[in-house]
Design goal:
164 residues, Rossmann fold, two-stranded antiparallel sheet, 6 helices, AB_hydrolase_fold, Alpha/beta hydrolase
Length: 164
């Protein structure tokens, strides 16, 4: 568990993929330590369509950025290699997509600024995922930038952390 001695000056918690979902879970558990939550091209369940989750599709035909994040099942369908929802249901850390969405909505509506940074090109977030964000967490802010250019991404993060 993160505590004040370890992160007394934290401006934001930031993550992509499983790291973003973990950042969301951390923020829910330690709101007093998190001043902003930044999710990089990630929303609960949003990558399922991009990865072809549940649909027969050879892993080698995926976008190269996604290949290392999925595993091909015996029926040739794909599943996320790492996901908080893959933990045993009885685990306190088991967080399925629906639970993560609920938590994101509460954070965005009340006490923690939530910013979703969408990749300008090759985004994992479909228009449907963005519509779902706006429906479930209308208080969340959406920013689109070239996430593959470190300076552009750093500029967005700086604006978020300094502009609150």
């Amino acid at each position: 568990m993160v505590g004040d001695p370890f992160a007394p000056q934290t401006e934001a918690v930031f993550g992509t993929g499983l790291g973003a979902l973990t950042a969301l879970a951390l923020t829910v558990r330690s709101r007093h330590l998190v001043r902003a939550l930044i999710l990089l091209d990630t929303l609960p369940g949003a990558g399922d369509a991009a990865a072809g989750k549940g649909a027969p599709r050879p892993a080698h035909r995926l976008d190269p950025d996604l290949r290392h994040e999925v595993v091909e099942n015996s029926d040739r369908s794909l599943s996320w290699r790492h996901h908080l929802g893959n933990l045993p249901p009885e685990s306190a850390d088991h967080l399925d997509d629906e639970t993560l969405w609920d938590q994101l909505a509460v954070l965005a509506a009340f006490d923690v600024p939530v910013v979703v940074v969408r990749a300008a090109e090759r985004s994992r977030l479909t228009d449907d995922a963005i519509a779902e964000l706006r429906r479930r967490a209308p208080g969340a802010r959406l920013v689109t930038t070239d996430v593959h250019r470190p300076r552009a991404l750093a500029q967005v993060v700086n604006e978020i952390t300094k502009g609150r």
